[in-house]
Amino acid sequence: TPRASAVPAAATTPAAVSSPGAPAAPAASMPAPAIAAPSSNGWESEIHSRWSQRVDKTTGILNGTRAAGDAARILGADKLSASRFKTLQKLLAASPYLSARWTREGNTLHDKSNAAAAVNADAR
After folding, report:
1. Which residues contact 12 (CB under 8 A, 6 or more apart)?
2. Which residues, at least 6 apart from 74, have a Cβ–Cβ distance to it below 8 Å?
3. Which end of the chain is less enclosed by CB atoms within 10 A, N or C?
4. What sign results for the dihedral spanned by CA atoms 108, 112, 113, 115?
């Protein structure tokens, strides 16, 4: 029969120890990138990629219902309101990556990188 160890499991694993003489990593010394990078979880870049495939290339406009449906599926929900974000506006607000590339106007999303979309926005 195996014998139980008298040493707790936590005591047998090495703990992360920082060297007392090592400088601490600077928290805010690096400038923010001009356009936010996607988070490490990948859903932001996946949503951006899907929206970019579906956006009207001439106008830079994507139907909001379609955008919400695509985002919901990527986030693992049946519809966006069943996800943690609830609305396109909340999704954009929670994601610097997406909000740097898309803007919501009514029930449409506008691709900020699309030159035609910029001209259309200026005309309003």
Report:
1. 5
2. 43, 46, 47, 50
3. N
4. positive
Place of tokens 């997406």: 98
Q: What Cα–Cα distance (Å) separates residue 113 from each residue in 26, 73, 94, 97, 117? A: 32, 24, 20, 13, 8
Give CA separation, 95 vs 3, 19, 59, 112, 124, in Å.
Answer: 52, 35, 23, 15, 26
For 63-107, write each residue's pLDDT tens digit. Answer: 999 999 999 999 999 999 999 999 999 999 999 999 999 999 999
DSSP summary character for residue 108: E
Q: Does the global pTM surpass 0.90? A: no
Confidence of residue 42 (pLDDT cuts 50, 70, 90): confident
Burial of 101 (0-12, 13-18, 19+ CB in 10 A): buried
> Locate tokens 């990948």: which residue?
42
Burial group, residue 47, by CB count within 10 angstroms (0-12, 13-18, 19+): buried
